[in-house]
Amino acid sequence: GEKANQVQYLIDKERIKKEEMFDGFYGICTDLEASPLELIKINKNRWEIERCFREMKTEFQVRPVYVRREDRIKSHFLVCFLALLVFRLFKQEIPGYSSYESIKTLRQFNLAEISAGDYIPIFQRTDLTDKIHDSFGFRLDRELITQKYFKKIYKQTKKEKKYAKN
After folding, report:
1. pLDDT category of residue 51 using cuts at 50, 70 and 90
2. Residue 149 in contact with residue 161, Cβ under 8 Å?
């Protein structure tokens, strides 16, 4: 119970050496009764969920939300979830690009209507836009995109939907 007049600090260099073995590793503390491999798999899935939430908050800008009624909250969540689902499917189809780069490119994928039903592209063509065109089987970087071409794309999606059912 006496107040110490002198303070002495010691550095345990042996302890530091032992702890350095774990640099770059993450520890997990859990009450789950599972094998280490199962715990690693569970933690990896948790990381995917965290990444999805981060993408929704940063890339999709879903916050802040100014809704109070339960039906509107659920609707907002559903729209966000569907956007995330579609985006995840898109990223599986077009791998190798960051979420930021993919969303930025998709947002700049604009067309300008020059006459009733006729459009011209007003986006810059890049490797990513070319991969999108190739993967999805239609081109929006043509000199003129007519209503007839849009109907052709629409019919093509109907056929693919029909084949998917069989």
Report:
1. confident
2. no
